[in-house]
Design brief:
The chain is an alpha+beta fold. The chain has one domain: Nonspecific Lipid-transfer Protein, Chain A, CATH 3.30.1050. It is built from 5 helices and 5 strands; from the N terminus they run αββββααβαα. The chain has a 5-stranded mixed beta sheet with strand order 3-2-1-4-5. The longest helix has 12 residues. The two termini are about 15 Å apart. The mean pLDDT is about 90.
Amino acid sequence: MTIQEVTEKIREQAGRIDPFGARLKFDFGEDIVYLDGTGNENIVSNEDNEADCVITTTLDTFDKISSGKLNPMMAMMTKKIRIKGDMGVAMRLQSLIKG
């Protein structure tokens, strides 16, 4: 999965849900997907902005979680995914990642 594919997947999913009142950043090392859900709609970009919650992982791990091949809790326990900031924001991500 490429960063463009991840960005489009998150953009598509974010368009289907109400703004969730927070800013979230997926940090894939050299690539970023930023989601601003503080306005009237969720806005997805590849800008490296400040966020309430930062999720650091690889594109491969993201792909495995989004396809259901890897349990998100197992990914956290094995340190394949790290979360910094507001854990409440991270817990609301299932609707953005799955599907």
